[in-house]
Design a protein that fits this description.
Rossmann fold, alpha/beta, 19 helices, globular, Alpha-Beta Plaits
Length: 603
């Protein structure tokens, strides 16, 4: 077997094994309250914060287990350098192995071999005892680490706890707008207010100030900027801290006053405004005890517009506050570095997920946002937990999952189970947020579904060509490359090898129909690049060039596979409902298969 193919096959096997208004209630921010007028002193970079539970930054439990990265049944054998070719063959024969040399085998005598899964340990022990062997060990996988250089990242135990560094290999929030309905965000230079230095690389879209009825939603409190930092703090900029979805856009919607208070009517207006102006995720780190209809109707409106609504559970230590407990909202309780529910966290019906909410370090403003006063405090509260989930939701949406229910399902399915008893579910919901699991599972599911659909389309096309007895086979490189580009993505496996936070990697890993996500997730709802128009136009332009017909056919087949996956996975929210979306996908997939067949028959 060719060495390159051998290594890719082993890696693929390993990956598949691993994959797996009158009388209204008052709203207030759900961070642990401070003494009125007491503002925290600016935090210096060298001041310690509780580091977490002893897991190195960026590590997951599996990252600390060597065996978790081993390629099943594959070993590396380094024969003694003075052993000649017959001697190497004799060594292999003695153990019933077939050696495959590495590219440098001639000078190093390093060989690869396959062993039945259950026998790996015994075979390695015997090889290590053989005098002809310098060493023998399992063949293991490695991955690229997205190593952000933010100085305070080592203090952000909460990002490591949700698997954010690993999640950045799969998504970083490109094309997603997250509205922070709060006290405002330090998003612009206006009057005495300035944009936060650690938000300098984070794009902010226009927002609205319902407290002052103006377009300038500047933060004169500090709560909203801290929350926004957890969602999309500028990351890998050599400054301050990091955020969960650092390539997402922030939308500041100010509904709370300088003192941190507001009304349910203002919050409802903020939710509606955010949804109507393109927010894909809405974070509500605020709440009160009243189950106000004005809030529920605004939430229903936002969800109908395709927005994911995330809210803090509250800091009462008792029942969940609203809108955290409102229908359709992902309610978030707060946990500490050991996944224990924070004593202040509300719990009970309405908790859907838990996330870190103790000693959460982010940048915010001081001196009421004036005089360029900034700090990096570690704050407590379900207000701090909710934006972790909102940021993770942004990562999920950036992968093309646009149905709010599907986004919540992905986050719940990926959560780390802590206590599955009835009492546990009321504290943790589905479990503690694991962003890495959610985006990893989605990426794998998309790739496998589109590969399977593409294979089915290719089999169908091959049979049609065989029945006619003339035409070009789809089993050729000129067909396969454009088919992969339009279907699963040319290098759909890239996130397991290289960090997708890198723009070039992200571009290559995405299929063509997903590229509109770089413009925005709202555009992707219309699937402008996933329809029969594009391959039909290519056919019209290049039909006279015979050698390009397999290329056009491959592109059409890949587009058909992508459309089939959209209909089958049920994660996409089309602008006109589920039934019309499935019908659209079916019709266009059929047309794409017909276009592919026509091009192959004439090739």
């Amino acid at each position: 077997m060719d060495m390159t193919r051998s290594r890719w096959a082993a890696l693929a096997a390993g990956l598949l094994g691993w994959a797996s208004s009158g009388g209204v209630a008052i709203a207030q921010p759900t961070s642990v309250p401070q003494t009125p007028g007491d503002r925290p002193e600016p935090k210096r970079a060298n001041e310690p914060v509780s580091p977490g539970a002893g897991v190195p930054l960026g590590a997951e439990a599996a990252d600390l287990d060597e065996a978790a990265y081993d390629v099943p049944g594959a070993i590396v054998v380094d024969a003694r350098d003075d052993l000649d070719e017959p001697g190497v063959r004799g060594l292999a024969a003695a153990f019933g192995l077939t050696f495959v040399p590495t590219s440098l085998e001639a000078s190093t005598r390093i060989e690869l071999a396959s062993v039945a899964g259950g026998a790996v340990r015994d075979v390695l022990a015997k090889l290590r005892a053989d005098p002809r062997v310098e060493y023998a060990e399992p063949l293991a996988r490695v991955r690229a680490f997205y190593a952000a250089n933010d100085p305070l990242l080592s203090e952000q135990w909460h990002l490591a706890r949700i698997g954010a560094p690993r999640a950045w290999d799969f998504a970083s929030g490109r094309g997603v707008t997250v509205a922070v309905v709060d006290t405002g965000i330090a998003c612009e230079d206006h009057g005495p207010f300035t944009k936060g230095t650690d938000l300098s690389a984070t794009p902010c879209v226009p927002g609205w100030n319902f407290a002052a009825n103006s377009e300038h939603a500047n933060d004169d409190h500090g709560h909203g900027t801290h929350v926004a930092g957890t969602i999309a703090q500028s990351t890998n900029n050599g400054l301050g801290a990091a955020g969960v979805a650092f390539h997402a856009r922030l939308m500041p919607v100010k509904v709370l006053s300088e003192s941190g208070w507001g009304t349910t009517a203002d919050v409802a207006d903020g939710i509606r405004w955010a949804a109507d102006h393109g927010a894909h995720v809405i974070n509500l780190s605020l709440g009160g005890p009243r189950n106000a209809q004005v809030l529920q109707k605004a939430i229903d409106h936002a969800i109908a517009r395709g927005a994911v609504v995330v809210a803090a559970a509250g800091n009462t230590g008792g029942r969940v506050q609203y809108p955290g407990a409102s229908d359709g909202v992902i309610g978030v309780s707060a946990t500490d570095a050991n996944d224990k529910l924070a004593p202040f966290s509300s719990r009970g019906d309405g908790v859907d997920l838990a996330a870190p909410g103790v000693n959460v370090t982010q940048q915010t403003v001081c001196n009421h946002g004036r005089d360029k006063c900034e700090q990096f405090p570690a704050w407590n509260g379900t207000s701090m937990a909710s934006p972790h989930v909102a940021g993770a939701a942004a990562l999920v949406v950036s992968l093309g999952v646009s149905d709010p229910a599907a986004v919540e399902r992905a986050l719940r399915d990926g959560a780390r189970k802590v206590d599955d008893s009835d009492a546990g579910r009321k504290q943790y919901g589905a479990g503690v947020l694991q962003a890495a699991n959610a985006v990893g599972q989605i990426t794998l599911r998309h790739g496998l579904a589109r590969l399977a659909a593409l294979f089915a389309v290719m089999v169908l096309l091959a049979r049609a060509i065989a029945r006619k007895g003339a035409g070009s086979s789809p089993w050729r490189l000129s067909f396969l490359v454009p088919a992969l580009f339009a279907g699963p993505g040319l290098v759909f496996f890239a996130p397991w090898l290289l960090p997708r936070a890198d723009l070039a990697v992200d571009l290559l890993a995405r299929p063509l129909p997903d590229l509109d996500l770089f413009v925005g997730a709202s555009l992707h709802r219309w699937l402008p690049l996933a329809n029969a128009v594009v391959p039909f136009a290519l056919t019209a332009v290049f039909y006279g060039v015979k050698r390009l017909r397999p290329v056009v056919a491959g592109f059409a087949a890949g587009t058909a596979a992508y459309l089939v996956s959209i209909a089958a996975l049920g994660e996409h929210a089309g602008p006109f409902g589920r039934a019309l979306l499935v019908g659209w996908c079916a019709i266009n997939a059929a047309l794409c298969v017909w276009i592919a067949k026509a091009n192959l028959e004439e090739a």
